[in-house]
Design a protein that fits this description.
This protein has 11 helices and 6 strands. The chain is an alpha+beta fold and 298 residues long. A hairpin with a 4-residue loop joins strand 2 and strand 3.
Length: 298
Amino acid sequence: MNCKDFREMIDSYLSDELLTETNHDVLRHMENCADCRSVIEARREIRSRLKSAVTNAPQYQLNKNFEHNLRTQLRHAAFETTETQTVSWFGFKSLIAVAAGLILTITLGLFLINNLGGEQPNVAGETDKEVKEYTVPTLPTNHIVNIASGDHEHCAIRHKLEEAPISLAKASAQYDGIEKVITKPLANALTNYELVEAHACKYKKTRFAHMVLQNAKETLSVLITDKNDSDDLQNSGILNYSTKKYEIARFDVKDKAIFVVSNLNKQKNSKAAEALYQPLRNHFADKEIIQTAILMVY
């Protein structure tokens, strides 16, 4: 993809209208072209400001008591309908008029909410129901496990992030050669999987080294990020979590938190994490030795 083709697709990309394969091409181009990254960020800023201007316009503000009043009117209408067994034709027509008015009010409200927007909980602007699909219900939504699951959802599945991915080399020298470290043990644990992406991406202010592997039906992410001291597993080994859509396995190595996220069953997903534990432990131990040796030289 060249810069001309890329710029013709910017609006379609921002509107999430491209095919999955085309989204991959756009992401690869942005990874290697600083000029196009600047153009798309400028276009995104313009769209955001226009939406904000319309959303915050006084004439489009919804009454804060809208939901409460609507629920009250619906309850009253339902109560009167069940309590009144014999209703005159005039009364029946009145109920129809009330119901029609409520339906019109609801439709208008939903139209304004969906088209004029407001604060969106996630980068893709999902509904609460969509968020719950890939969120571990027993953990806070801002827990690192849910952030890792969200990165898998938005980067590996939807290919829609606020920020373009960068190369692993730019992210950290610790990730040099990390693709080879994970592909061989995963090939032994799982069959017919190929590495299709290896980059560093950001979701909810958290930077991940992200390797995406696929076979004919499933997608698996290996995600690595800096460990938060307050979220240290303290040598707890591999922990497994479940959401409605994904299985998540998490373990810590040195100062890194590592996640395997997929739509495999729990046993296979955990098996993949087990296969990666020792190779990644050796990898980061070697990097630490090299860094220590460099410091000693200086």
